[in-house]
Automatic annotation (TrEMBL):
<dbReference type="InterPro" id="IPR058584">
    <property type="entry name" value="IMB1_TNPO1-like_TPR"/>
</dbReference>
<keyword id="KW-0677">Repeat</keyword>
<keyword id="KW-0813">Transport</keyword>
<feature type="repeat" description="HEAT">
    <location>
        <begin position="409"/>
        <end position="446"/>
    </location>
</feature>
<dbReference type="GO" id="GO:0005737">
    <property type="term" value="C:cytoplasm"/>
</dbReference>
<dbReference type="Pfam" id="PF03810">
    <property type="entry name" value="IBN_N"/>
</dbReference>
<dbReference type="InterPro" id="IPR000225">
    <property type="entry name" value="Armadillo"/>
</dbReference>
<dbReference type="Pfam" id="PF25574">
    <property type="entry name" value="TPR_IMB1"/>
</dbReference>
<feature type="region of interest" description="Disordered">
    <location>
        <begin position="1"/>
        <end position="20"/>
    </location>
</feature>
<dbReference type="InterPro" id="IPR001494">
    <property type="entry name" value="Importin-beta_N"/>
</dbReference>
<dbReference type="GO" id="GO:0005635">
    <property type="term" value="C:nuclear envelope"/>
</dbReference>
<keyword id="KW-0963">Cytoplasm</keyword>
<dbReference type="Pfam" id="PF13513">
    <property type="entry name" value="HEAT_EZ"/>
</dbReference>
<dbReference type="GO" id="GO:0006606">
    <property type="term" value="P:protein import into nucleus"/>
</dbReference>
<dbReference type="GO" id="GO:0031267">
    <property type="term" value="F:small GTPase binding"/>
</dbReference>
<dbReference type="InterPro" id="IPR016024">
    <property type="entry name" value="ARM-type_fold"/>
</dbReference>
<keyword id="KW-0653">Protein transport</keyword>
Length: 863
């Protein structure tokens, strides 16, 4: 069978034919990769072949060079670059030839192949003449197809290659795409491809945006394209404006005044939904940007400083223009709209919410007339829009400004939970949830709580989306009206006590259903968990009865685990077990050591659950979370369960490919160490061995290794002087890890090193605290210099996280406190320590308190 037939068969509607062809192609790629690639390349430019076959060849070529997963992409790049030059050059030549074909579909896939190869070769300093070749194609006025596909290729390349790699060619690329995007361009296909390429190029033309003349021309071309008769070009132009606002907000004042206010308000009114959506997105981006700037300005003001970028208040200036348009768009709901389908009314509601955060109190007077005029309207679209408006503006204005509005609207909203139109009831339930979430402080408990809970409990009998919103509202109510102290102590009674029995029973009834449409059953379990977690003393019996009900359900579900056949049943089983575990965790946290009478039953069930989890790591994680919470509650009372549980912990610690499960398993060692204290010494040998082995793994995610370092601190703190056998190895590992330096241009690495340092500081803190005030404290002296070096490096980093600063100050204080008689006096008298402990830079209150304590400890240790 020849290549064309094989490729044609990969598109066959017959599954057997299709799978046979795919397996033969995969075998060809494995056996002789160069020949396989040349075969596909030849088929791509074979004018005698059917277009769908050539398209399949192009896609197979692209997929042999590029992949979504980072690891696989790296593997494919190595494989491609290992091909001999003749093979690579032939394939590259063929892919460039395909750009000029008469069939648009082939030219499009050719653009994908060119960009896939470019994204491998250009970062490796190969195919240096590609951009020059593509720019030559763009200027070929006689071949529109070639120009379109070339612009597509440039767009894909701009999207796929890091901006710093392409920035040296930014002038040439920008010239080509701007030329294609101009209003004088006769081909709308060229204009669209150029606008799309420009969108992807905007990130690396920062230098061009710094130059006013070039910036003006780019903005002119984009603004003119918003008026293009072709809808796709208009949409692309508005997408560019959104991106420009996101990247170059500080340069936009001139353009907002001259063009963008008017253009985007008109765009929101455009009857073409795709255009209106992007124009709304423009204002959403403005509001997000200005809210962030507002936060930064407030934070800077606290320390008597000015923010780096000044807020231009575009959203506040435009408020009178954009609010009426957004409110009108809110009334454009679709009767049968899918909840996952994005439309103009949803986009307008989102934009209104962001606008409220950006302009804060100013939004209230702008929308009240609309709410008052439409909340009792005959047309359900207007009623729903009025409620949506009210719900959307709650996050931003001062709650005290909104309080009178809440008091006025709440009785009406509660009545509207009986509205004949389901869309209205749904939005009302969501709005009540928002009040319980954001404006709980405005509620008058004696006036509002009874009718509110009655309405929400009645809503639990409505359709799934409304049930989910009512459950969310009840969750917020339980959390918001909780009188728990910061230490987690429960009050004797609470404002929700009279309703506990009824609400929890109603929620348990909701969870008896087999379905979970709109996640309503999951939301009900979350509400049950919230009520259990926040239960006052006089309703503990409700919590106890609830846990018994949940354990009975878990027992039943485990007993039928062997009867599960289909994937849907298995997913449903998993979801329910996750829900049960979340409620059990909440009950344990609320009851503390009061869970002891049920501990045997809980551990028996959890061990059974792990056995029948069918390798579902999610269920394992949930089960482990229950175990860790139980250990924390019982403390040394958990010791009898360790022997039965540890055989299940070890395989999870060795599941290096499963990052999440391994992280949870490492966290459990910390939980056990903290709970058991010195009793955990009998397990520390096994724990330390497996953790040190995991650090050597090349497969294990590096973030899990940070958790492991932190876990050393938990073990050391728990067993104190008994940590001596592991001290030298641990300190050596921590010193090596602490020497890692970030490349400031690699943001991911910078963040990783920051997290790594935090984990190391936590480990050092555990080790030092564990040995402090013991006869083994002098074991620390040889390591104090290294510990302080890391503290110095962390505090010298201007971009350090506040948590890193707090740990560093705390560690300096702990070392000084460990040696109050001058044993490390010379180290503590270092100039940098004095400077840091006198620091007046901005920091959180908790960090400042830690700094002051450290200063006192150092003063005492150096006296």
């Amino acid at each position: 069978m020849n290549a064309g037939e094989l490729l044609a068969n990969t598109l066959s509607p017959d599954a057997t034919t299709r799978q046979d062809a795919e397996s033969k192609l995969e075998a060809a790629a494995r056996e002789n990769f160069p020949a396989y690639m040349l075969m596909l390349s030849s088929e791509l430019i074979n004018e005698a072949a059917e277009p769908h076959v050539r398209n399949a060849a192009g896609l197979a070529l692209k997929n042999a060079v590029s992949a979504r997963e980072v690891a696989r992409q790296a593997e494919y790049a190595v494989r491609w670059l290992a091909l001999d030059n003749d093979t690579r050059n032939k394939i590259k030549q063929d892919s460039l030839m395909s750009l000029g074909g008469q069939h648009p579909r082939i030219a499009h896939v050719g653009a994908q192949v060119v960009s896939a190869i470019a994204c491998v070769e250009i970062p490796a300093a190969q195919w240096q003449d590609l951009i020059t070749l593509l720019l030559g194609f763009v200027n070929d006025a006689n071949n529109t197809n070639l120009r379109v596909s070339t612009l597509e290729a440039i767009g894909f390349i701009c999207e796929g290659i890091k901006s710093e790699v392409l920035s040296l060619r930014s002038n040439e690329i920008l010239t080509a795409v701007i030329h294609g995007a101009r209003k004088e361009e006769p081909s709308p296909e060229c204009q669209y491809a150029a606008i799309h390429a420009l969108f992807n190029a905007l990130d690396f033309v920062r230098d061009n945006f710094e130059r006013e003349g070039e910036r003006n021309y780019i903005m002119q071309v984009i603004c003119e394209a918003t008026q293009n008769p072709n809808v796709k070009v208009q949409v692309g132009a508005y997408e560019c404006l959104v991106r420009v606002m996101d990247l170059y907000y500080d340069k936009m004042s001139f353009y907002m005044e001259r063009a963008l206010f008017g253009l985007t308000v008109l765009g929101m009114k455009n009857p073409e939904e795709a255009v209106a959506l992007q124009a709304i997105e423009f204002w959403s981006t403005v509001c997000e940007e200005e809210f962030e700037l507002l936060m930064e300005a407030n934070e800077a003001a606290e320390y008597g400083e000015f923010a780096e970028v000044e807020c231009q208040n575009f959203s506040k200036i435009a408020l009178p223009e954009i609010v009426p348009v957004l409110l009108t768009l809110l009334t454009r709901q679709e009767e049968e709209a899918d909840e996952d389908e994005w439309n103009v009314s949803m986009a307008a509601a989102t934009c209104l919410g962001l606008l409220a955060k950006a302009v804060q109190d100013t939004i209230v007077s702008a929308v009240i007339p609309f709410i008052e005029a439409h909340i009792k309207a005959q047309d359900w679209h207007q009623r729903e829009a009025a409620v949506m408006t009210f719900g959307s503006i709650m996050d931003g204005p001062d709650p005290q400004v909104l309080a009178p509005l809440v008091h006025q609207a709440l009785p009406l909203l509660i009545d509207m939970m009986s509205d004949p139109v389901v869309q209205v009831r749904d939005t009302v339930a969501w709005t009540l949830g928002r009040i319980c979430d954001l404006l709980i402080s405005t509620l008058k408990v004696d006036v509002h709580v009874h009718p509110l809970i009655s309405a929400l409990v009645n809503g639990l009998q409505d359709n799934p989306r409304i049930i989910a919103n009512c459950c969310w509202a009840l969750t917020n109510l339980a959390d918001g009206l909780s009188d728990m102290t910061e230490e987690g102590a429960a009050p004797a009674t609470g404002s929700l006590s009279p309703y506990y029995e009824g609400v929890v029973q109603a929620l348990l009834k909701v969870t008896e259903t087999a379905g979970n449409e709109s996640n309503f059953r999951t939301a009900a379990y979350e509400a049950i968990a919230a009520f259990c977690m926040n239960a006052p003393g006089d309703v503990v019996s409700v919590v106890q009865n609830t846990i018994v009900t949940i354990l009975l359900r878990m027992e039943h579900l485990i007993s039928v685990a062997n009867q599960i056949l289909g994937i849907d049943d298995r997913n449903n089983w998993n979801d329910l077990q996750t829900n049960f575990c979340s409620v059990i965790v909440s009950v344990i946290r609320r009851l503390g050591d009061g869970i002891q009478p049920l501990a045997d039953r809980i551990m028996t069930l959890i061990l059974q659950l792990i056995q029948c989890a069918a390798k579902s790591s999610t269920i394992m994680e949930d089960a482990f979370l229950v175990v860790g919470t139980l250990a924390t509650a019982l403390e040394q009372g958990f010791a009898p369960y360790m022997g039965a549980f540890l055989p299940y912990l070890h395989p999870a610690l060795k599941a290096h490919e499963d990052t999440q499960l391994c992280t949870v398993a490492v966290g459990l060692i910390g939980d056990f160490s903290r709970a058991l204290g010195e009793l955990s010494a009998q397990y520390s040998d096994a724990f330390m061995r497996v953790l040190l082995e995991n650090l050597q793994s090349e497969v294990l995610n590096r973030n899990v290794k940070i958790s492991i370092l932190s876990c050393f601190g938990d073990i050391a703190l728990a067993i104190g002087p008994a940590f001596e056998p592991y001290l030298e190895t641990t300190m050596s590992v921590l010193r090596q890890a602490g020497s890692v330096q970030p490349n400031p241009l690699d943001y991911e690495l910078v963040e990783y090193v920051s997290n790594l340092r935090e984990g190391i500081l936590e480990a050092y803190t555990g080790v030092v605290t564990g040995l402090k005030n013991t006869e083994k404290v002098n074991l620390l002296i040889p390591y104090t210099s290294n510990i302080l070096e890391l503290c110095q490096r962390c505090l010298a980093d201007e971009d350090r996280a506040d948590s890193v600063a707090k740990l560093s100050y705390g560690l300096i204080g702990d070392l000084a406190d460990s040696f109050p008689n001058g044993q490390i006096k010379q180290l503590l008298l270092a100039e940098w320590i004095g400077q840091e402990l006198r620091s007046r830079s901005r920091m959180a209150g908790e960090t400042k308190r830690t700094l002051r304590w450290a200063r006192e400890m150092v003063k005492r240790a150096t006296a």
